[in-house]
Write a structure and sequence with these properties.
Chain B: Its main location: cytoplasm. The complex is a heterodimer of chains A (598) and B (658). Chain A has 598 residues and is an alpha/beta fold. Chain A is 30% helix and 26% strand. In chain B, a hairpin with a 2-residue loop joins β31 (624-629) and β32. Classes of the chains: A alpha/beta (598), B alpha/beta (658). β24 of chain A pairs antiparallel with β26 of chain B.
């Protein structure tokens, strides 16, 4: 029985370092290759030794697919391809291909230059790795090899995020990456067609949440920012350079304009300008409204938002600063946070999910005293607000996607075990399909039951369809017969006669002749006629003919009568039939042995 | 399979393919050369045009001075220009299931087909094709509606009258079917029927046919189409290019193994090398500017203009044209320039790489930023105050019959310092200029047509090897003006099947197989046996289900089970139900081996008699005969059913079942 195997190397009952191995129809695919923000040691990257203990991965993987540019989905890619070793194809969408190397370079700089780690991938490695990338277009069917094909769907979440449909023969898997089922201010909603995959591998970050309407959250966000500014406080919004940042910038930009506010808004990294450029050039990946109006007004040209300089952090008076990274685990956002944490007038708004181990995660859990490097502790006095602006599907969205794709099995990754458990129950109950949630390194095996495609002779098909009539009769299904010829990789279904011809085989006729004797005081021709009427009454559904040459034919079975020379009443019936009529011939010979009814 | 040809224009095709149960329109080209028979529509009142004399036949019997005007010996219709539509009578357009668009130039007739004909299908196009196609339609509508002309001219279309007119009006065909331009409302309605597709996306039509667009390398989002089922493949090639300009390169390999390849949209300028033309364009432009004259470039608002601007971008400094203003005037100029920058996925590799940086893929962004290139919706408004001469103006329409170009022809035509440079190949430049004669302005003809030439196409066809090629009849003979150039035609073996307007071709197809699916349960129950090395057969008895053009085979539902011990009894009591007939047999029964088998089963007294065809075995103890021949076995056995069935099964051991 064919089977599909799924093994998460990362993101199994966890958020971070997404990396899922799928074996389908003899092909091995790696989905995402991310890093974990919560670790600084070996656990930062997926454990590739699972694939092979020694040597390169090229021989073990048919392709690698990256769903989007977030580091927890692509952060381990140069390590995997250049340091462990993989030379096969890597697929990602155009925006991901454009943005991913920038974030990787950032990540490298923070790790190597700031933290002084060695044995890390180099800038050159990032470049070499990106050379192996083949860009994917939405809905394009990419033939990885003769059997394996992949197709990308729009996933929302961030610019260029994609879900992938992976297909070998009639077996298929869909991997969602991270996705969002509701359009936001800059991106559209995820969409997939009714592709009925054998397995749907879905993220489940917000497995238990059903979020209130986006409008409410936006209003809340603006209110909090506004109040803080009014009382002269500083607002820090830790974000990742691309994604949520643009959505919130659009939000604040329009609000500032409407309310005619004067407090400065800054964006911290030099990436901003560049980031906005990406949005302008990849405008086809944004939501419909922005796409429609971009000629008149490009939403990514901000009037109120200026570049930030680190000296501004000490400026008096209110301000709003977007700073990277988004989980307060390093970099500028952390520096600013340290500066502003002591003042209760200030506020930090966490607009996204924070993984365990990060400062973001700690303060969201209410921790007010933080141990910093060295022995220093930091008192957190500023207001901490959490607003879920992460563009992940919530429980409702996940269910919606299941309804769209109609998978046969469900597999959850990229979420916390407890929450997954809850969602798993809900899915199994509502859709009556199996739902799995493997931990890292744990393999789920599912048997599939694919139909077998064959090429049927058009003659045979047309004949069958004509005989079958316009509508099938469910009570009396018509059986068709044919011969399946299996040659190399081709399967052809033809009529038996055609099969003989095509294979160059002779037909071997197998015939049987049987003599049946009984007493019947009639002339030969009368006996024959009596046989005819008798059979006529017994065999209702058969063609029975009384031929002028003195034979009765039942289908193609020949019956002749003669009487013995000695006794004119002792009749000898000669039955002759071919193997194809074996059932009927055998039946007739037994029937006639009993004689004729008087 | 049939092909209905609704357009005779080889580069603006409109064909309908009936394939399996689907009706597919391939492109929807609008033949706009008909507008050359009309007077230009000036944006501002033109005393010259309004003073042209009306036309009266020489003998004075026909007076059409209201409808027809004479200019430099040619007669023009003085009415709103009209277009020559695809044929609408050849088949019922409401039966069309889908329309496939290959590039934005080949969709301009769409509103005529999708509106008011009962069309209820879907139109498939790529995103750039839709967006730029919309711009071109919008521009066309705008050009027409900006200068409404109330007067309709119909008298000249009268057959008797038309016969008397001077050429080329006399020879214009189907003039009664010519139509005025559609409205914006019709454009919007037509384009709302478009479903977007990406290159290599596979789209299923009714489960019967799969269509897929391929990059054709000609313009942004331009595509060729594959229309195929599991066993038949039709390639539709329309407007393809192998030159490295801005679009993604042409996908050639996917065209392989076609049964039929429909070839349209070859270059209209087979003798003009696009690179050479580009060079000539630049040098003529520079020369005119240096001499203090203005340059007018009549062009479409998208396509080659991007390449012209890119070429100028590199040329401006070296030719010290840095201070010369470049104007691009069109109601959709801004949109066209903006849209060109956002289709990274559809661009050639070099341009994609720029987007990754991120930089705009086309250098006209920089020309605009540095104020070297300015764009305006029309000559009215801002343009009139910014206008400085000498300058270069890019504007439409290339037919010179409507659009802002008419104004510049009137304005600059009188001075020999100025130059008009024709780059679009769609219109004969002499015909385009006819209503402006006499003209002092210099005219340079540099048609840039990047589509495949005959040399490239024959190389391509050699590579992809279609079984049959269908093409417009124009491609099967050299051009009329160059009848000795046998290299300017398609020479193929077998020769291509030519079509013309209103042809209906039967495509040479023999469909022999159809894809069906055997459900797993049935597949598992099949018992294959090897008939020769590498070839196995299995007999299949199944119920066929056909739904939405998909066929599946599943197991025959079992009749209520009968215990095997009772079976014999039942057979006697009731006639057998012929659910599965016995398979055909093949092979031969070898004598020695058969005898040995008989012996094993206790049949020892066998008398073997040789005959001309084989052997007769006489089983003496059982009084039974077995006739063994090369292609047949005959068992004659009386009154001993168990023996007969035993013998039957023994014989079957030696035979293959099909």
């Amino acid at each position: 029985m064919p089977e599909i195997k799924v093994t998460p190397l990362g993101a199994g009952q966890d958020v971070g370092r997404s990396c899922i191995l799928v074996s389908i129809g003899g092909k091995n695919i790696m989905l995402d290759c991310g890093m974990h923000m919560g670790y600084n040691d070996d656990r930062r990257f997926p454990d590739f030794s699972y694939i092979t203990q020694n040597g390169r991965l090229t021989d073990f993987l048919d392709c690698v697919i990256i769903s989007h540019f977030h580091l927890d989905h692509c952060g381990a890619l140069p390590y995997m391809s250049e340091m462990v070793g993989y030379d096969g194809p890597i697929y990602m969408t155009h925006p991901t291909k454009a943005i991913c190397p920038i974030l990787l370079e950032d990540f490298r700089k923070i790790t190597v230059d700031k933290k002084g780690e060695t044995n890390f991938f180099t800038s050159q490695m990032i470049k070499d790795c990106m050379k192996k990338v083949i860009p994917l277009n939405l809905h394009q069917t990419v033939q990885v090899d003769d059997e394996l094909e992949i197709k990308a769907y729009y996933a929302g979440h961030v610019l260029g995020a994609a879900m992938v449909h992976i297909k070998v023969g009639s077996e298929s898997v869909v991997y969602t990456g991270d996705y969002n089922m509701t359009p936001d201010r800059h991106l559209g909603a995820a969409w997939i067609d009714k592709c009925r995959p054998d397995i749907l591998i879905s993220e489940s970050t917000y497995a238990t949440t059903i979020r209130d309407s986006k409008r409410c959250r936006e209003r809340d966000f603006l209110k909090k920012v506004h109040e803080s500014i009014e009382r002269g406080g500083k607002v820090l919004i830790p974000v990742f350079a691309l994604g949520r940042a643009q959505e919130l910038c659009i939000l604040l930009e329009t609000f500032w304009e409407r309310m005619n506010l004067k407090a400065p808004i800054y964006f911290s990294t030099g990436l901003t300008e560049k980031a906005n450029h990406y949005y302008k050039l990849f405008i086809t990946w944004t939501n419909q409204k922005i796409r429609k109006t971009f000629v008149q007004r490009n939403m990514f040209e901000f009037k109120h938002i200026k570049a930030f300089d680190r000296s501004y952090a000490d400026n008096p008076g209110p301000m709003v600063v977007f700073a990277t990274p988004g989980m307060l685990h390093a970099g500028q956002s952390l520096q600013i946070f340290k500066k502003w944490a002591g003042n209760e007038k200030n506020m930090v708004i966490m607009p996204g999910y924070c993984v365990q181990g990060t400062i973001g995660h700690k303060i969201l859990n209410g921790q007010r005293k933080l141990e910093m490097e060295g022995r220093a502790t930091l008192d957190v006095k500023l207001q901490v607000e959490y607003m879920s602006f992460s563009a992940h599907a919530d429980a409702k969205g996940i269910m919606q996607l299941i309804r769209m794709a109609e998978p046969r099995n469900m597999l959850l990754v990229h979420g916390e075990a407890v929450k997954m458990e809850f969602l798993k129950g809900k899915i199994e109950q509502e859709f009556s399909i199996d739902c799995y949630m493997p931990a890292n390194g744990e393999t789920v095996t599912m048997t599939t039951n694919p139909s077998v495609p064959v090429d049927m002779s058009l003659n045979l098909l047309k004949r069958e369809m004509a005989l079958g009539g316009p509508l099938p009769d469910p009570k009396k299904p018509r059986a068709m017969h044919g011969t399946l010829i299996m040659k190399e990789n081709s399967l052809k279904l033809v009529s038996s006669e055609q099969a003989l011809k095509e294979l160059g085989l002779n037909e071997h006729q197998l015939r049987f002749t049987c003599r049946v004797q009984f007493q019947d005081p009639h002339s030969d021709s009368d006996t024959l006629h009596r046989i005819y009427t008798h059979l006529k009454s017994v065999l209702k559904d058969y063609t029975i003919q009384h031929l002028p040459d003195g034979t009765v034919m039942v289908e193609s079975i020949v019956i002749k009568v003669s009487s013995s020379a000695e006794d004119a009443n002792a009749k000898v019936l000669l039955l002759s039939w071919s193997y194809q009529d074996e059932d009927l011939g055998s039946y007739l010979s037994s029937l006639l042995k009993k004689g004729l009814p008087t | 399979m049939k092909l209905y040809c609704l357009s005779g224009h080889p580069t603006l095709p409109c064909n309908v393919l009936k394939f399996k149960s689907t009706t597919i329109m391939l492109d929807c080209g609008l033949d706009t050369t008909s507008v050359l028979n009309f007077l230009p529509l000036p944006l501002v009142h033109s005393p010259r045009l309004s003073k042209l004399p009306g036309w009266i036949s020489k003998d004075g019997s026909i007076n059409l001075e209201k409808e027809l005007k004479e200019c430099a010996g040619r007669v023009f219709v003085d009415a709103q220009p009209e277009f020559c539509l695809p044929e609408r009578e050849l088949l019922d357009l409401s039966t069309i299931d889908v329309i496939l668009i290959s590039n934005y130039h080949c969709m301009m007739a769409l509103p005529y087909i999708t509106e008011h004909t009962g069309f209820t299908g879907t139109v498939y196009a790529t995103e750039p094709t839709l967006q730029i196609g919309r711009l071109l339609m919008e521009e066309l509508v705008n050009f027409m509606e900006r200068v409404p002309k109330a007067q309709a001219a119909t008298c000249w279309k009268n057959k008797e009258v038309q016969r008397m007119l001077p050429g080329p009006l006399k020879d214009a065909v189907d003039v009664w079917t010519w139509k005025r331009c559609y409205s914006m409302q019709e454009v919007n309605s037509a384009l709302s029927k478009v479903q977007l597709v990406g290159y290599s996306q596979k789209v299923e039509l009714f489960g019967a046919v799969q269509i897929s667009p391929l990059s054709s390398g000609y313009s942004l989002g331009s595509s060729n189409w594959i229309i195929q089922s599991h066993h038949e493949k039709v390639s539709y090639v329309s407007g393809s290019s192998l030159l490295t300009t801005h679009p993604q390169p042409m996908d050639q390999s996917s065209l392989k193994n076609s049964d039929v390849l429909i070839l349209t949209g070859l270059t209209q300028m087979p003798t003009a090398n696009p690179d050479g033309m580009l060079g000539e364009f630049c040098s003529n432009l520079a020369m005119t500017i240096r001499a203090g004259g203005n340059v007018l470039v009549p062009c479409y608002s998208s396509g080659v203009i991007y390449d012209l601007l890119e070429c100028l971008y590199q040329f401006i400094e070296s030719a010290s044209l840095g201070t010369t203003p470049f104007y691009f005037i069109s109601p959709v100029a801004n949109s066209s320039l903006e849209f060109s920058q956002i289709f990274a996925e559809w661009l050639c590799h070099n341009k994609q790489t720029k987007v990754y940086l991120p930089e705009p893929p086309f250098p006209h962004a920089e020309l605009i930023q540095t104020n070297k290139l300015k764009h305006y919706p029309s000559i009215h408004g801002d343009f009139s105050s910014d206008f400085r001469q000498p300058c270069v103006v890019f504007t439409g329409h290339p037919s010179l019959r409507f659009g802002d170009v008419v104004h510049f022809m009137e304005l600059w035509g009188k001075s020999s310092l100025n130059t008009v440079i024709f780059t679009e190949p769609d219109f004969s430049y002499l015909d385009a200029l006819a209503p402006y004669q006499p003209l002092a302005m210099k005219c340079v003809y540099c048609p840039i047509d990047t589509r495949l030439n005959f040399h490239q196409v024959s190389k391509l066809l050699k590579e992809v090897q279609p079984l049959h090629v269908v093409c417009p009849e124009q491609y099967t003979q050299p051009p009329v003006t160059q009848s000795h150039r046998s290299d300017l035609m398609l020479e193929l073996q077998p020769p291509p099947m030519p079509y013309r307007r209103c042809s209906v071709l039967s495509l040479p197809f023999r469909r022999r197989y159809e894809r069906v699916y055997i459900l797993p349960e049935l597949a598992n129950s099949l018992v294959p046996s090897e008939v020769k090395a590498g070839v196995s057969v299995a007999t299949v008895s199944a119920v066929l289900h056909s739904k939405d053009n998909k066929h599946t085979l599943q197991s025959v539902p079992k009749p209520p089970p009968v215990a095997p011990s009772k079976k014999r009894k039942r057979v006697i009591e009731e006639p057998p139900v012929t659910l599965s007939p016995k398979p055909l047999l093949s092979g031969a029964v070898p004598l020695e081996a058969f005898l040995a088998t008989l012996q094993k089963h206790g049949i020892t007294e066998v008398k073997v008699e040789e005959t001309s065809e084989g052997h007769i075995l006489h089983l003496q103890a059982e009084d039974t005969l077995i006739q063994l021949e090369e292609d047949g076995t005959h068992i004659v056995c009386d009154n001993n059913e168990p023996l007969r069935t035993t013998l039957r099964d023994l014989v079957l051991r030696f035979l293959q079942k099909l």
